[in-house]
Write a structure and sequence with these properties.
The complex is a heterodimer.
Chain A: E1 8-11, E2 13-16, H1 23-26, H2 46-49, E3 71-74, H3 86-94, E4 98-101, H4 106-113, E5 118-121, H5 124-136, E6 142-145, E7 150-153, E8 158-161, H6 166-174, H7 178-183, H8 186-193
Parallel strand pairs in A: 2-3, 3-4, 4-5
Antiparallel strand pairs in A: 1-6, 6-7, 7-8
Chain B: H1 6-12, E1 15-18, E2 24-27, E3 30-33, H2 39-48, E4 58-60, H3 78-94, E5 97-98, H4 109-115, E6 124-127, E7 141-144, H5 147-156, E8 158-161, E9 165-172, H6 181-192, E10 200-205, H7 207-210, H8 214-223, E11 231-233, H9 238-244, H10 253-263, E12 276-281, E13 288-290, E14 298-300, H11 313-326, E15 341-344, H12 346-349, H13 352-362, E16 372-375, H14 380-388, H15 391-397, E17 423-426, E18 441-444, H16 447-456
Parallel strand pairs in B: 3-4, 3-6, 4-5, 6-7, 9-10, 9-12, 10-11, 15-16, 15-17, 17-18
Antiparallel strand pairs in B: 1-2, 2-8, 13-14
Helix pairs in contact in B: 2-5, 6-8, 13-16
Classes of the chains: A alpha/beta, B alpha/beta.
The complex binds iron/sulfur cluster.
C-alpha cells in the first residue's frame, strides 16, 4: 500500500495521556468488518470519542477543538493487544503521521511503520515534558526530523534523538514498502526452498 | 562452538537473507488466514498484479465473525457475511484450502492447525492474528502479523522481521491443586506486566511447564502475547511427539522417522544465553482471576483488589480509570462478587481438555439462575469429541447448552456480546474495555474457575469444591 513520503513534519500535537492504549480502543472489533481499506479514521477511538447515542464525548481530546495536528502523543505501552493493522490505518486515515510514546507494543510499531506512520519513542521524562508543553499551550509546535532522527519541542527548543531501523527509515523517506522488495527477491526465495 | 537457544536454531534455519541495516527476510513454513485480516491483503496483491506464491502453504478458516448457533443458516449480519464470503472467494481464486462454516475442518484458526497436525515442531508459522503464539507450544516460531505482512507472505512466502531478543521464563516445582496452565499464564503476566515481554520471544521451561499437556502448553503460549512478547515457545518433547503422531497432516513412515530425529535436536543448548531470564516457583501460584482492564491486572482468587498507594502520575490515573470501568474499589474481596455471564471457549481455552475440566466440575451441580453461560467449542473436531465423550448430557443435566464453534464472546465481532455493565467470567485472553461488547466487564480465569462461578453465580475459589 503506497503512502506519502515522510521527511520532516512541524505540527501541534494531540495529547492522550493514557497508558496501555490497546488496539481494541484504537479501533473496536466491530469496525473490522470492512473488506477495503477505507474510512477507518471515523471510528478511531470510537468508544472513547462517542457515547452510546453517537454523541461526541466532550472531554475526549480528539473532540476538543483546541487540540489539532498530525502528531498523537500517547502514554506508555501504546498499541498493545491485537495485531489488527486497522489500528494503524485508523490513525493514518484520521490524519496522524507521527505517534509519540515512551513505549510501543511490537506489532503495532511494525504495523505503523508499514503504513507510513512514524512511531517516535522518547524517555518517560521527555514524554511528560511534551504533555506539559501541550498543557501550557495547545498550539505549541513540535518538529519531527526523520533525516536527523530528532524530535523538538519548538517552544522551548528542547530536543531529543530517536532511533529507527535504517532500512525502515529508507522505506519511510521514499514511501516504499516491503512487499515490492520481497517480490523482487523471487529467485533467492526459490533457491532457499531447495 | 557458538551456543544457541531453541529460538536461534529455528530462526537461523529460516533466514533467507539479512538486509543491510534492516530486518531479516524470514521464510514462512505455514501461513494461516481468517476473514478479518486477509481481505485487504488480497486486494493489495491484486492491485500489484501479483499471485500467491505457494498457495499450498496457506490454510484458511472463518472464525471471528461467525454465529455460534444455527450455523447452517446464512450469517445474518451483512458485513460479517460479506467478509466470510470474501475469504471463500479469495481462497477459490488463489487455490487456497478453505475450511468453511459447518465443514469438518472448521474452527478457530489456532485450534484447527494443531488439531490437523499442520502445526509441527521446528516450523515458522504466521497468521494475521496476535494469538498465533499458540502454535509455539509445539516448539515452533509462531507469531501474529499485520495485514501488510499477510500480503508479504501471500506474495513471497517470506516476511521481513528484525530478530527479537530472547527471554527465558522458567517455572519449576509442582502445581498446586486447582491450578492450570491458564493460571500460570495470568500469574506470569501479573508478575512481568503487559509490556514486560516487549521486544522478546519467550521460551517457557522448567518442570511445571514440562508437566503440562499439549492443551495446557497451547493455553500458556497463547497468552504469551499478553505480556507484550512476540510469542512464546516450549521445546518439543515426548508429549509433543505423541500429540502430533498420526494426525492428518503429520509426517508418516520414513518421513516421520527423519523429522522426529530433527525435532529431538530442538532445544536450547545447556549454556545458551538469553537476554532476560525470569524464574518462578509453581508453589506460589493459586487459581487466578483478573480485576481490571488488562491481562496484567490479575491476582490470586483469594486476594483483594490491590490499592494504588504506590502508583503515581499517569499510572495511578490509568489504574483508577480501570477500576471505575469494572465497578470495583481498592481493597475489595474478589471472592463472592456477583457475576452475570460465563464464557468457556476461544483459542485460549476452547480445546477438549478445557471442556472436560469444566464438565467434571459442574457434573451433578446446577447452573446458577443469575448466570447466562456460553459454552463454545473451539472447532468442529472439539465439538464432535465433546459429543462422543458424552459430555453434552452432563452439561445439559446441569443446565448448560453447547454452542457451535467460533471465536464467540472472545471479541465483540459476532452476535455473542456481553451487555453493558455485566460481569463475565471468561476463559478467553483479553479483558480490555469493550472487548466482549461495549461496556462489558471481563474477568479472565481458567475453565475450572469459570465452572465454579457458573454454578454459584459469583466469583468462587474452585478449590473449595476439589
Ligand atoms: S478466539 Fe479470540 S483471541 Fe482467539 S483468534 Fe478468536 S478472537 Fe482472536
Amino acid at each position: 500500500m503506497a503512502y506519502d513520503k515522510f521527511t520532516t513534519l512541524t505540527s501541534p500535537a494531540v495529547p492522550l495521556p493514557i497508558e496501555n492504549v490497546d488496539t481494541d480502543q484504537i479501533i473496536p472489533a466491530r469496525f473490522l468488518k470492512a473488506v477495503e481499506r477505507k474510512g477507518f479514521g471515523d471510528n478511531l477511538f470510537r468508544d472513547w470519542r462517542y457515547d452510546k447515542s453517537n454523541q461526541p464525548i466532550a472531554d475526549f481530546p480528539l473532540n476538543q477543538a483546541k487540540y489539532s495536528g498530525k502528531i498523537l502523543v500517547g502514554g506508555k505501552n501504546f498499541g498493545s493487544g491485537s495485531s489488527r493493522e486497522h489500528a494503524a490505518w485508523a490513525i493514518y486515515d484520521y490524519g496522524f503521521r507521527v505517534v509519540v510514546s515512551s513505549f510501543f507494543a511490537d506489532i503495532f510499531q511494525g504495523n505503523a511503520l508499514n503504513n507510513g506512520i512514524l512511531p517516535v519513542v522518547v524517555s518517560p521524562e521527555f514524554l511528560e515534558k511534551i504533555f506539559m508543553a501541550i498543557e501550557a499551550d495547545q498550539n505549541t509546535l513540535f518538529e519531527v526530523d526523520l533525516e536527523n532522527q530528532k524530535f523538538t519541542i519548538c517552544g522551548t527548543g528542547e530536543s531529543v534523538g530517536f532511533s529507527i531501523n535504517p532500512y525502515k527509515k529508507h522505506c519511510l523517506t521514499n514511501g516504499l514498502d516491503d512487499i515490492d522488495y520481497l517480490i523482487s527477491m523471487k529467485e533467492e526465495i526459490a533457491a532457499f526452498e531447495k | 562452538m557458538e551456543t544457541k537457544t531453541l529460538f536461534d536454531k529455528i530462526w537461523d534455519a529460516h533466514v533467507v537473507k539479512e538486509v543491510e541495516g534492516g530486518p531479516s527476510v524470514l521464510y514462512i513454513d505455514q501461513h494461516l488466514i481468517h476473514e478479518v485480516t486477509s481481505p485487504v491483503a488480497f486486494l493489495g496483491l491484486e492491485k500489484r498484479g501479483a499471485k500467491v506464491l505457494r498457495p499450498e502453504k496457506t490454510v484458511a478458516t472463518p472464525d471471528h465473525n461467525v454465529p455460534t448457533i444455527n450455523q447452517h443458516l446464512s450469517i445474518k449480519d451483512e458485513l460479517s457475511r460479506n467478509q466470510v464470503e470474501m475469504l471463500k472467494k479469495n481462497c477459490a481464486t488463489h487455490g487456497i484450502v478453505y475450511h468453511g462454516l459447518g465443514s469438518e475442518g472448521h474452527g478457530v484458526v489456532h485450534i484447527i492447525g494443531p488439531e490437523m497436525g499442520i502445526t509441527q515442531p521446528g516450523m515458522t508459522i504466521v497468521c494475521g492474528d496476535s494469538h498465533t503464539s499458540t502454535h509455539g507450544a509445539f516448539g515452533a516460531i509462531a507469531f501474529g502479523i499485520g495485514t501488510s505482512e499477510v500480503e508479504m507472505v501471500l506474495a513471497s512466502q517470506c516476511i521481513m522481521q528484525p530478530k527479537p531478543r530472547k527471554m527465558l521464563i522458567a517455572v519449576n516445582g509442582k502445581l498446586n491443586k486447582g491450578v492450570t496452565a491458564k493460571d500460570i499464564a495470568l500469574y506470569v503476566i501479573a508478575q512481568i506486566s503487559t509490556s514486560g515481554g516487549t521486544g522478546h520471544f519467550i521460551e517457557f521451561a522448567g518442570s511445571a511447564i514440562e508437566s503440562l499437556t499439549m492443551e495446557g502448553r497451547m493455553t500458556l503460549c497463547n497468552m504469551s502475547i499478553e505480556c507484550g512478547a512476540r510469542g512464546g515457545m516450549i521445546a518439543p518433547d515426548q508429549t509433543t511427539f505423541d500429540y502430533v503422531k498420526g494426525r492428518q497432516f503429520a509426517p508418516k513412515g520414513e518421513d516421520w522417522v527423519k523429522k522426529l530425529a530433527y525435532w529431538k535436536t530442538l532445544k536450547s543448548d545447556a549454556d545458551a544465553v538469553f537476554d532476560t531470564v525470569y524464574e518462578f516457583d509453581a508453589a506460589n501460584i493459586e487459581p487466578m482471576i483478573t480485576f481490571g482492564t488488562n491481562p496484567g491486572m490479575g491476582i490470586g482468587i483469594s486476594q483483594n483488589v490491590p490499592d494504588s498507594n504506590k502508583l503515581t502520575g499517569s499510572d495511578k490515573l490509568t489504574y483508577e480509570k480501570s477500576l471505575k470501568y469494572m465497578g470495583y474499589t481498592e481493597g475489595d474481596k474478589m471472592v463472592g462478587k456477583k457475576i452475570d455471564y460465563v464464557f468457556v471457549g476461544s483459542c485460549t481455552n476452547g480445546r477438549i481438555e478445557d471442556f472436560r475440566s469444566f464438565t467434571a466440575f459442574v457434573k451433578g451441580k446446577k447452573k446458577a439462575n443469575n448466570v447466562t453461560a456460553w459454552i463454545v467449542p473451539g472447532s468442529r473436531a472439539v465439538e464432535k469429541q465433546i459429543i462422543a465423550e458424552g459430555l453434552v448430557e452432563i452439561l445439559n443435566a446441569a443446565g448448560f447448552e453447547l454452542r457451535q464453534p467460533g471465536c464467540s464472546a472472545c471479541l465483540a465481532m459476532n452476535d455473542d456480546k456481553i451487555p453493558e455493565g455485566k460481569y463475565s467470567v471468561s476463559t478467553s485472553n483479553r479483558n480490555f474495555e469493550g472487548r466482549q461488547g461495549p461496556g462489558a466487564r471481563t474477568l479472565l480465569a481458567s475453565p475450572l474457575t469459570a465452572a465454579a462461578a457458573a454454578v454459584t453465580g459469583k466469583i468462587t475459589d474452585p478449590r473449595e469444591f476439589l
